[in-house]
TrEMBL record:
<keyword id="KW-0067">ATP-binding</keyword>
<dbReference type="InterPro" id="IPR027417">
    <property type="entry name" value="P-loop_NTPase"/>
</dbReference>
<dbReference type="GO" id="GO:0005524">
    <property type="term" value="F:ATP binding"/>
</dbReference>
<dbReference type="Pfam" id="PF00005">
    <property type="entry name" value="ABC_tran"/>
</dbReference>
<feature type="domain" description="ABC transporter">
    <location>
        <begin position="14"/>
        <end position="244"/>
    </location>
</feature>
<dbReference type="InterPro" id="IPR052156">
    <property type="entry name" value="BCAA_Transport_ATP-bd_LivF"/>
</dbReference>
<keyword id="KW-0813">Transport</keyword>
<keyword id="KW-0029">Amino-acid transport</keyword>
<dbReference type="InterPro" id="IPR017871">
    <property type="entry name" value="ABC_transporter-like_CS"/>
</dbReference>
<keyword id="KW-0547">Nucleotide-binding</keyword>
<dbReference type="InterPro" id="IPR003593">
    <property type="entry name" value="AAA+_ATPase"/>
</dbReference>
<dbReference type="InterPro" id="IPR003439">
    <property type="entry name" value="ABC_transporter-like_ATP-bd"/>
</dbReference>
<protein>
    <submittedName>
        <fullName>ABC transporter ATP-binding protein</fullName>
    </submittedName>
</protein>
<comment type="similarity">
    <text>Belongs to the ABC transporter superfamily.</text>
</comment>
């Protein structure tokens, strides 16, 4: 039987090799190797300042970086954020990045910027997003800035889905949210990965992420210090040894 949690057990869609990035003299990411394949949700864990957000920014080409990011087997050379997004690698950033003075519908429409005036495709994608988050359908004309934090996070994920991603990256979608709505959103991410979409989830709340993930990468001081099979984590105290090592 193949061990589905082992890196490489599934053909990687996103394959990150030796990725490094720095802010001035701060070496925030030091040679990260990780991958995510079809149907895999991988968790990126670690304490504050471990380099998790930097990893996502470097994959997207939002900050200068060294190393290689391969997408569907080909190297994403000279990565620029727009080019990476056009390929289908889509980031839901920390803080959500939605436009508060625009309606829910307008935010969703922006996510589908690549399809131009193709109304049929727009409708198809909206229908999918409403299946994932029925609440958004009820709030289409509401200014998104007036929605609750949980609803705004649903919109951020919904808008990313409007781009029809081939890989979805999320930076702490649970930040500041109540446990119930966090559960709802993470469950939806589980559904998306089960439908085949590779999902890379940066998450501080390790126990929640480990419930969904097939594999977790634990970061500390810019490095991956452990690759974890969530089924082997007997208690969450076990993880603490890495957090406080
Ligand atoms: N714009 C920046 N300028 C300088 N240093 C930065 C910048 N952004 C991050 N850093 C530093 O890089 C390191 C990694 O930060 P990063 O935000 O990637 O960590 P993180 O694991 O995502 O933490 P958190 O969970 O708190 O968001 C930290 O030491 C941080 O202080």
């Amino acid at each position: 039987m193949t061990d589905q949690s082992a890196p490489g057990a599934v053909e990687p869609v996103l394959d990150v090799r030796g990725l490094s990035a720095r802010y001035g003299h701060v070496e925030a990411l030091k040679g990260a190797d990780l991958c995510a394949g079809k149907g895999e949700l991988i968790a990126v864990l670690g304490p504050n300042g471990a380099g998790k957000s930097t990893l996502l920014r470097a994959i997207m080409g939002l900050i200068p970086n060294q190393g290689e990011v391969r997408f569907e087997g080909a190297s994403l050379v000279r990565r620029d954020p727009v080019g990476v997004a056009r390929k289908g690698v889509v980031l839901v950033p920390e803080g959500r990045g939605i436009f508060g003075s625009m309606t829910v519908y307008e935010n969703l429409e922006l996510g589908a910027y690549k399809i131009g005036r193709n109304k049929h495709e727009l409708q198809r994608r909206l229908t999918h997003v409403f299946e994932l988050f029925p609440r958004l359908k009820e709030r289409l004309s509401q200014l998104s800035g007036s929605m609750s934090g949980g609803e705004q996070q649903m919109l951020a994920v919904g808008r990313a889905m409007m781009a029809d991603p081939k890989v979805l990256l999320l930076d702490e979608p649970s930040l500041g949210l109540a446990p119930r709505v966090t559960g709802e959103i993470l469950e939806t991410l589980g559904t998306l990965s089960a439908s085949g979409l590779p999902v890379v989830l940066v998450e501080q709340k390790a126990p929640l992420a480990l419930k969904l993930a097939c594999r977790a990468y634990l970061f500390s001081l810019g490095r991956i210090v452990a690759t974890i099979d969530p089924r082997e984590v007997k208690s969450h105290d076990e993880l603490a040894q890495y957090y406080f090592a």
